[in-house]
Amino acid sequence: MNTLKQKRWEANSFQPFHIISWFLYNTYRFFALPSYRYRILNVIRFKKHYHQFSNFTQLDRYPDLFEMAKQKFVDIEHPKILSFGCSTGEEVATLSTYIPHARFVGIDINTWCLKEANRKYASENRRFFHSLSPEFLTLKDFDAIFCLAVFQHPENRHNKNRKESCYPFEQFENQLKELDSRLKSKGLFFIDHCDFNFLETDLMPNYQIAPFDGNQKFRQRPIFNKKNQKLSEYQNLFRVYQKK
Predict the structure, then answer these.
(1) pTM score, two decimals?
(2) Which domains, ranges and CATH numbers included, belong to the chain?
(3) Which of 64, 98, 112, 179 pairs with 44 at a CA distance of 20 to 30 A?
């Protein structure tokens, strides 16, 4: 057996083992870890409304963006701020330390995440709702909306051979339009760790790039255009926009 055929045979001989191992590992995670179980169940239940599948978050994850918000709202009496895709609430909790006089709403589609957010961080000025709930549907007139690490798909980043986005631009833009209807004139739209460029959306004529130092950031992660085609393995995007 020549070397190439031997390598192929060896790779194929281990394939069933890898499949079985993957199945057993994820079965264990499903029954042992509520966070993983609810992620799977919510993806099945709300699939067409999902953007980001990961629940990962942490406190003070975007200090430069939070500092920009602090600068903007330091003299505004009670700014109203939305965290879209808030996961378990750490973003809201952190923002409330930067802007303690603000009122916050955290929105997520994962019911387990919302239960954890309410358990850990809910207060008089920090509320958490499901993104499809009647409570959220009535909310508007926000002074700022945060969408951080929401509009992305892991396959776009981890598969270097991928030329077309797994996450469609149309879904991204439609969600932005829905959020835009809730944002006040002169309000700020924060968007970061995204697979697309806000400048390409139909909303951009109604916005301007917010004049913050450090607004534009270079990152080694892929960027896709409105036709879902990969443009580059690198991004150099603005992250904060102000509604006209």
Answers:
(1) 0.89
(2) 3-49 (no CATH), 63-243 (3.40.50.150)
(3) 179
